[in-house]
Amino acid sequence: MRTWLKRLAIAGAGVAVIAVGLRGVGYRIRMDGSGHPRLVRVIDADALYEALERQRAAQHAAAPSPTPLAPTAVTAPPVTTGAPPAPATTSAPAPASGRATTAGSWTDFRGPARDGVYRQRPLAATWPAGGPRLLWKQPIGEGHASFAIARGVAYTIEQRREREVVAAYDVKTGRELWTTGWDAHFSESMGGDGPRATPTWSGGVVYALGAAGELRALQAATGAVVWRRNILDDAGAANLQWAMAGAPLLVDGKVIVQPGGRGASVVAYDAATGTTVWKSLDDQQAYVSPMIATLAGRRQIVTWTADRVVGLAIEDGALLWSHPWTNGNQINATQPVIVGDDEVFVSTGYNKGATLIQIAASGTGFTASEVWQTPRMKNRLSSSVLLGGYVYGLDEGILGCLDVRSGQLMWKGGRYGHGQILLAGDRLVITTERGELALVRATPSAFEELALVPGIDGRTWNVPAIEDGILLVRNAQEMAAFDLR
């Protein structure tokens, strides 16, 4: 017994020495999207922020910003939990019916329809040997948000030291136009530090949600605060293990968010004032962003909680239908895919799989029934896309194609890890978990990779964005723009 204990002690000491040595040269043991430990090079947070601050200072010193810069710290009206906020210091225009968007702009998480599909100018069918042309690359604060883009400006939210910061960048140059932030720092060992939810642009206002529930409406031109709430405080809800991740949804003058509180799992705020409009459901929430879809003839909010997929009435949040679908961990982190006029495809990881749900009108209500299910498509961190009756997605890190009518697996190929997928024409634009860029033909006949080239450094879980042929990618330390035209 003493011999074994001695051996264990020696082994433990050896592991500790190795860990210290790796840390000394900038390496860490970190979890990948499957929860497996991997040796990766990680930039020290202080070094990252110092590099970012130097780069931004030099950037602003080189030339005046084309957009007036708002102060980094903005004093906002106080929030009283459960009560309307104090009058806003500036006014925000209420969005028109539906989502107010600039034609062709990537104003929402995964695009205007939140479906991961790019529908603007055609992109190049192939890439040069070295990959698409790099327009710019620069440091960025930590976090897992993507970009909302409108009028040539990209908006994201990131961690900068002990503050969550919403930042606006010129798409063509990467120039920082303004920042505004607040004191907050969410940290989690597996996912890493920083905010998760992508901002949303609507009607000249940016709606940004921090990791701990801070929701702010900001003037898109300057970053000035219009109103603010804390959705977790308002709902009396505890934060999720990996924090608030759902992008705010703008619809019919309302901001839809998902705090997960009892009686307030889904909440609508007035987009112009921040006043609560309605609250709905008792569900524990997931890491999913609400969407708008018309199913069985009814325009509605579609989202996915920790336990079920639901359709909600836009006007009052009433439950229209629900269908149970979850994994053993209650961790759903991918977007539903709307199929035709009455079906929804959902897929989750952790050994669960995918299902197709059919929504039907029934008397004065709706019913939801399962068409098929399969274990052959398990989207853990990356949402699938749909083209011509086929779903393309990452099955626990391996690209696959399913026939959406039958659930039959057509092919698997391409080990991209827990990266992200967008669809542009008949091409899949993929960012791998390692930060590479891949171009794959979207065809059910066979896996056909057209290109795999370097992109950005570091673990990359963030969803990319495409605006007018320019691909924006980021992770927790770096951001870049590539010309796909």
Structure report:
With 485 residues, the protein is mainly beta. 9% of the residues lie in helices and 39% in strands. It has three helices and 35 strands. The chain has helices at 2-24, 45-62, 231-235, and strands at residues 27-31, 37-41, 117-118, 133-139, 148-150, 153-160, 163-170, 176-183, 200-202, 205-209, 214-219, 225-230, 249-251, 254-257, 266-270, 276-280, 291-295, 298-304, 308-312, 319-324, 337-339, 343-348, 353-362, 365-374, 385-387, 390-395, 398-403, 409-415, 420-424, 427-431, 437-441, 449-453, 465-467, 470-474, 478-483. A five-stranded mixed sheet has the order 3-29-30-31-32, with no helix packed on it. Strands 4-35-34-33 form a four-stranded antiparallel sheet. A hairpin with an 8-residue loop joins strand 14 (254-257) and strand 15 (266-270). The radius of gyration is 22 Å and the shape is globular. The N and C termini lie far apart (67 Å). Mean pLDDT is 89; it is low at 68-103.
Summarize the structure.
The protein is mainly β. About 10% of the residues lie in helices and about 40% in strands.
Ends apart, CA distance between termini = 67 Å
Tell me, what's the shape? globular
* Cross-sheet strand order for the largest sheet: 3-29-30-31-32
Low-confidence stretches: 68-103
Q: What is the percent of helical residues? A: under 10%
Cα Rg: 22 Å
Average pLDDT works out at: 89
Largest sheet: 5 strands, mixed
How many β-strand runs? 35
β-sheet strand percentage = 35-45%
Class from helix and strand fractions: mainly beta
- What is the helix tally? 3
